[in-house]
């Protein structure tokens, strides 16, 4: 186990713990789905190797990498005091598990992981704060809620505050009464359109029937005319034969 540089005193609560960024070999005492707890020789406090710190590739379960009682090389990448508890964070991917050589001598990966964990826990940057509306009236535009010095109103323009929810309820109550009237108007329009269609269809049917009747009459006239001609021809032929015999 490597020693810390210089005789600097440890912060209160962190004394008796392995130095930061030191490399040691420890024993796995517990395996969970999210990581494994490792105990270092000479220290009572156990540290957590998170699944994200076990390998450079993605690990779903810590049991895929280590077992209880196994000896692993770790690097101390975090020491935090949370209330009355002290949290130790170890990394296995920063150390060669065969030789114990430091794969991150400049602690670049360790600092990036620590920054990522801090940003994940800190949600203050995403908060939205709402300020109270000032109970004052602007002398420039005549609206409420801001001072004259903060007014952006241009000459001739006026601004008004949005109505409250209580004011919008009467409007919403009026809309259902107007809906049946619109439905009745639509029904009336549909009825009128249907009547117009029926009239058109009747006219078309009448015109078609009249045209068909005219055609029938013309055909009958043609037939009668042809029959008359044939009768006349037959009579002439009979007369001619009777003259020849005489």
Structure report:
The chain is α+β, with helices and mostly antiparallel strands. The chain has two helices and five strands; from the N terminus they run E-E-E-E-E-H-H. Strands 1-2-3-5-4 form a five-stranded mixed β-barrel. It is elongated, with a radius of gyration of 51 Å. Mean pLDDT is 76; it is low at 1-7. The relative contact order is 0.06.
Features:
5-stranded mixed barrel, alpha+beta, 246 residues, single chain, 5 strands
Please outline the helices and strands:
Layout: E1 23-31, E2 35-39, E3 46-50, E4 71-82, E5 85-91, H1 108-121, H2 165-245
Parallel strand pairs: 3-5
Antiparallel strand pairs: 1-2, 1-4, 2-3, 4-5
Q: What is the N-to-C order of secondary-structure elements (H for helix, E for strand)?
A: EEEEEHH
Rg calc: 51 Å
N-to-C CA distance:
160 Å
Largest sheet: 5 strands, mixed, barrel
Low-confidence segments, ≥5 residues, pLDDT <50?
1-7
Characterize this entry briefly:
Helix content is 39%, strand content 15%. The protein has 246 residues and is of the alpha+beta class.
